[in-house]
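Protocol step 4 of 6: record predicted structures for both targets in the notebook before any analysis. Target 1:
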Amino acid sequence: SDGKLVLVACDREEHVCLDAAAPIVDDEPLRLHRGIHRRIVRDFNDGQPLSCTVTTFADAPAGSGLGTSSTMVVSVLQAYAEWLKLDLTEYELANLAYQIEREDLALAGGKQ
């Protein structure tokens, strides 16, 4: 309720605090987190700001080839879906994760 968007990646020791009402810029740090939040706001909250804290942790290192980023996107999307009571099927969730990571952010990788 404070109008802030706080993104935290504990494993990477990175965090960013943004104005939830301002446009979410496709930038580092936490580009993946920003992309997920931006898409949720655009597609499921009529562009209205969402104030929250998103905290993640991954055991597998980025770039390891273990699907860490794809798994992270699906997990964070599921958290938003539960919070906002979005009725997304497993297929819709996986497809949205693919769109965010591969199309919106142009990141290379697989598909969950």
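Target 2:
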Amino acid sequence: MTAHPALGLVDAVATRLADPGSAPRVCGTQSCGRQHLAYGPPGIALLHIELAANGLGPWRRAHDWLAAASRQPLTSGPDSHPFYGLPAFAHALACAADQLPSSYQRALDVVDKRIAVDTQRRLDAAHRRLDAGRLPQLAEFDAIRGITGYGAYLLRRDPGGSTMRAVLDYCVRLTEPVTHQGEPLPGWWTETGPSGTLDHRFLGGHANTGMAHGIGGVLALLALAARSGHITGGHHAALRTILAWLDRWARRTDGQPSWPYWVTRSELRSERLETSMPSRPSWCYGTAGLARAQQLAALALGDTARRLDAENALVAALTDPEQLNATTDHGLCHGFAGLAHTAARTAVDAHPVTAEKLRAAIPALLAAAVPSGTHFHDIAMALKRGDGGDGLLDGAAGTALVLLAHGLATPPRSAWDACLLTS
């Protein structure tokens, strides 16, 4: 049987990134990059772990990249987060340990205990903030830097544990409305702009809807936990609260909904969005990630109509020239590779008709991510756009992981994408 062409491209990337000592454009010698899941060695290790798990590469490469990430002490405590430091390394280590039960387990047990302590510390601070009636920072709860990201890890490692239950309790509490300066707001409203800092363009703050930095990630975590049988008090009500918010702010184009990246204070007060133009769909922000999160929530709630609406919204986003033309990146986070991956993950749980449409859209998305006719020795350069380099979120490793799943026509074996909350 002839191998899928995508596998040749994946092999080219893996070969280029075989040795952390000689791989170009990897921040392996810098403290920040060495510990970062988005663009450093932990994310690149995921590519080699997934290849080895499928029998397509040696485990030695995965081990070398894990070693490159952990050669010096890893940051933990307040200066770490799910994509940086010990938690970022732990995600890659867990992906390897799941495939090699006799390896890494002792180290992973130690790491898990430290992450549980860090998660509880964050939860305690969040509840103190809630008790004081203050609004949250995005970094308190989001999937990249916050409690939702820790929850994604715990849902794999200790789903029935007390710390995971505490994370779910916090997520439920986050969805409860608050009154701030006499004005009713959703519990996830932040006083800053999307960057996490005060911004004159966001006077009065905003409600972030994104998967990476907003309530979309919380929705996905609650849905995934419910689907795996881990439910806390108020769980389903919290899901419905978030879904009702997204319903309220959905745009309609040719009958199909799309969702904004955020809602500003002026929009909240006027009860309408200030632009009718559809945003770029992506995993991190916008319709693609939110459609998957809503599909997961609908499955958890047994809401067939909502599930079909979410799936059709994603089909529309992936076939709408206006939305696709707004997509200029090629990587996993906010580019074409991320759209392809989200489509593939959504198709697994979709109605057969929408699943077929989603799968039909994937080849064109991957063709946009990797131009046709690319020579194998130039593949990493073709995948590299902007500052993405060779990393997971914006670079070659992440795109190669998406191509690998497509070439094998199977979901990831190592759950490398659990950090994205798409599954």
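Step 5 preliminary note on target 2. The two ends are 30 Å apart (CA to CA). The CA atoms of residues 83 and 144 lie 6 Å apart.
Proceed to step 6 after PI sign-off.
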